[in-house]
């Protein structure tokens, strides 16, 4: 049997799909992640001085001030039951300092648990 199309010998004709459409989704970068990338560039010994200078200029531009800080903890956004459970686990963990246990107990008292 002769090849029909594209080397098919089974009598099945191959017809490429010529009407394919491609959709591209563009996501905006998280400003906190972008700032973190620039900070990593500054501390990376394998990065050129030119790249470090550019990263510092971008950080100095102040475009990342609206980015949420990861150092801020907002317990109101978390599941209260999980927060209480975490503090209780702290109290029972022998590897935790007395200071941390006191803090956990204070938080539990504030939460009424």
Automatic annotation (TrEMBL):
Question: Where does this protein have compositionally biased stretches of type Basic and acidic residues?
Answer: 98-113
List the residue ranges of the region (Disordered): 1-113
What are the record's GO terms for cellular component? cytoplasm
Q: Which Pfam families match?
A: Con-6
The coiled-coil segments of this chain are: none
- Full protein name: Conidiation protein 6
């Amino acid at each position: 049997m002769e090849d029909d199309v594209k080397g098919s010998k089974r009598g099945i004709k191959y017809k490429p799909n010529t009407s394919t459409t491609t959709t591209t989704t563009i996501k905006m970068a998280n400003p906190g992640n972008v700032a973190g990338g620039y900070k990593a560039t500054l501390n990376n010994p394998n990065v050129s001085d030119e790249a470090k200078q550019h990263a510092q200029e971008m950080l100095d531009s102040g475009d990342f001030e609206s980015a949420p800080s990861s150092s801020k903890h907002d317990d109101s956004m978390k599941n209260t039951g999980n927060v209480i459970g975490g503090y209780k686990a702290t109290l029972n963990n022998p590897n935790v300092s007395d200071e941390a246990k006191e803090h956990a107990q204070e938080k539990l008292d504030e939460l009424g648990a």
